[in-house]
């Protein structure tokens, strides 16, 4: 079975080689570059499927490497993995085309899941672009079958046809438009304003439409005007608490999936939340990537059950 081809770029040699070993143990092919310059040279010789890239490196830093990669090798998905990042740098990385932005130390399981998601995005993009041309339809089906069957290397050969790159350049604006229309709508309800607005910004950077309510009454009022796909709901709030909001939402708007996210919950609260219909129950602090996975699962469940539009 062919492995996903991953290039790990980090000047912390012991760390990055340990990471490479762990990936090999999980059947993911990996190579190591200890600088930005070395990474760009290695890409010229053998283009990876996914690059995992540190930001802070001597010489060419990670942001410059990312910018060059997305210009010269747009089909390669780049995951930023840094121990010194900031919200400003995350916004810039996503603007330049990073697939995901993770903070060190990253859990190996989480990182591998992100790598596989990045590779899936590459395959899906290739299939979508190839489908635009009737004479390329067969290739698109072949690429999809090879990737799903565990042969990413063979799929990559099909994906990297020059015609696919030309199709990508012309198809991207329409794809962006379509993605914005289909974006999941998320309502975040929490009285910690700084926290909830930061979360909303990060969701927007991940192509999710988000809005904020700072208490339960405001949240219910907002639902009268526009119903989201997913609600992320704190339990401890002044006035109307989260459990009461959950109860009212599931009664009046059963199609909305509600994720409880609290820093003060108990096992009894969790049991009650699930009884009332909560999709999931998370305890703060929550890893952003994990939260995004749960949100997408909830959104998928909502649309599978009720469709993308309310009746």
Overall description:
This protein is of the alpha/beta class. The protein has 2 domains: 1-175, Rossmann fold; 183-306, Rossmann fold. It is 55% helix and 15% strand. The chain contains 13 helices and 10 strands. The strands form 2 sheets. It has a 5-stranded parallel sheet with strand order 2-1-3-4-5, with helices on both faces. A 5-stranded parallel sheet has the order 7-6-8-9-10, sandwiched between helices. The radius of gyration is 21 Å and the shape is elongated. It starts with a strand and ends in a 5-residue tail after the last helix. Residues 129-138 and 161-181 have low confidence and may be disordered.
Order of helices and strands: EHEHEHEHEHHHHEHEHEHEHEH
H/I helix tally: 13
Just give the CATH class of the largest domain. Alpha Beta
Q: Give the overall silhouette.
A: elongated
Strand content range: 15-25%
Number of strands: 10
CATH homologous superfamily grouping of the largest domain: Response regulator
Q: Spatial order of the strands in the main sheet?
A: 2-1-3-4-5
CATH fold field value of the largest domain = Rossmann fold
> What composes the largest sheet?
5 strands, parallel
End-to-end Cα distance: 46 Å
Please tell me the total number of domains: 2
| Structural class by sheet pairing and helices | alpha/beta
What Rg is obtained from the alpha carbons, in whole angstroms? 21 Å
Average of per-residue pLDDT values: 81
- Portion of residues within helices: 55-70%
Mind telling me which CATH architecture of the largest domain this is? 3-Layer(aba) Sandwich
Ranges where pLDDT stays below 50 over 5 or more residues in a row are: 129-138, 161-181
């Amino acid at each position: 079975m062919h492995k996903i081809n991953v290039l790990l770029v980090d000047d912390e040699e012991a760390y990055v080689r340990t990471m490479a070993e762990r990936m090999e143990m999980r059947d993911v092919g990996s190579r190591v570059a200890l600088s930005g310059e070395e990474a760009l040279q290695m890409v010229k010789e053998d283009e990876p499927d996914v690059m995992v890239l540190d930001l802070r490196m001597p010489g060419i830093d990670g942001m410059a490497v990312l910018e060059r990669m997305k210009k010269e090798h747009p089909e390669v998905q780049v995951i930023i993995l840094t121990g010194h990042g900031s919200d400003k740098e995350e916004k810039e990385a996503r603007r330049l085309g990073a697939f995901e932005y993770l903070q060190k130390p990253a859990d190996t399981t989480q990182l591998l899941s992100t790598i596989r998601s990045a590779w899936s995005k590459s395959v899906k993009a290739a299939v979508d672009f190839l489908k635009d041309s009737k004479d390329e339809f067969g290739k698109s089906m072949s690429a999809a079958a090879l990737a799903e069957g565990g042969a990413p290397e063979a799929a990559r050969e099909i994906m990297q046809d020059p015609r696919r790159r030309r199709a990508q350049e012309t198809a991207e604006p329409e794809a962006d438009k379509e993605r914005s229309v289909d974006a999941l709508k998320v309502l975040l309800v929490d009285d910690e304003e700084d926290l909830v607005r930061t979360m909303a910004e990060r969701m927007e950077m991940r192509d999710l439409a988000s809005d904020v309510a700072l208490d339960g009454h405001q949240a219910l009022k907002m639902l009268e005007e526009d119903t989201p796909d997913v609600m992320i709901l704190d339990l401890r709030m002044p006035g109307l608490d989260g459990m009461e909001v959950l109860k009212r939402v599931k009664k009046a708007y059963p199609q909305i999936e509600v994720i409880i996210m609290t820093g003060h919950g108990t096992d009894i609260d969790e049991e009650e939340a699930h009884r009332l219909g909560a999709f999931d129950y998370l305890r703060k602090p929550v890893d952003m990537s994990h939260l995004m996975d749960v949100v997408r699962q909830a959104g998928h469940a909502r649309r599978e059950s009720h469709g993308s539009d309310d009746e």
